[in-house]
From TrEMBL:
HTH tetR-type domain residues: 6-66
Assigned keywords, A-Z: DNA-binding
Classification via Gene3D superfamilies: Tetracycline Repressor, domain 2
The keyword DNA-binding belongs to this UniProt entry's keyword annotation: yes
DNA-binding region extent: 29-48
Keyword check for DNA-binding: yes
Protein name, entry field: TetR family transcriptional regulator
Length: 192
């Protein structure tokens, strides 16, 4: 009898993440996952009945971790540094957002799992939206953000900056740095 390699749910999530980024939702399969974990497909079915249940659990775990990271941050008193912290946190979970956007609306998950996913997604987005709106209002009040720019546009730019395609072959850190610089300072050199 062949002994099955030991692996954890965390191992499954890491490989699921890697495969979803590399292959996308449509090409992701338990066969690919089993191969990347060096186990049989049957071993994965002991954990999950289908890929949608697995991906949903993975996304829920990621959103919960993002909330923990947000709540554990020691926010700087410097306004500009607060923006850097916020932007870095959003960018650290860029892949989770991209994976989530790649998943079709109709998936094979239980109604209970769907409600759980929707609830955590609503909580995370609401939490971040509230914080960003307060951050913008503080910046406008203190003269650090231009008052004429609509709040909703600023929120959209911050949230959706992670979706900007990169044709420059920058590393993720370089891309985040330059996008953050553009948001904070614009693209024009200021005259001296």
């Amino acid at each position: 009898m062949v002994r099955e390699k030991k692996f954890s749910t965390e191992d499954i999530y890491v490989q699921t993440h890697n495969l979803l980024i590399k292959e996308g939702y449509e090409k992701f399969s338990f066969s690919l996952l089993a191969k990347s974990l060096n186990v049989s497909r049957a071993a994965i079915y002991k954990y999950y009945t289908n890929k949608d249940e697995l991906i949903t659990d993975y996304l829920i775990k990621q959103m919960e971790q993002m909330m923990r990271d947000f709540n554990q941050l020691t926010w700087s008193v410097d306004y500009s540094n607060q923006f850097d912290q916020l932007f870095e946190l959003i960018f650290n979970y860029r892949d989770t957002h991209l994976i989530s956007n790649d998943i079709p609306k109709k998936t094979l998950i239980s109604p209970e799992k769907q409600l759980q996913k929707e609830a955590i997604s609503k909580e995370v987005h609401g939490h971040f939206l509230n914080y960003i709106q307060q951050f913008i209002q503080t910046g406008k009040k203190n003269g650090q953000i231009k008052k004429e720019i609509p709040d909703s546009l600023i929120v959209g730019i911050i949230f959706h900056s992670i979706n900007i395609p990169d044709r420059s072959q920058l590393s993720l850190q370089e891309k985040a740095y330059f996008i953050k610089m553009i948001i904070k300072n614009g693209i024009f050199d200021t005259p001296k």
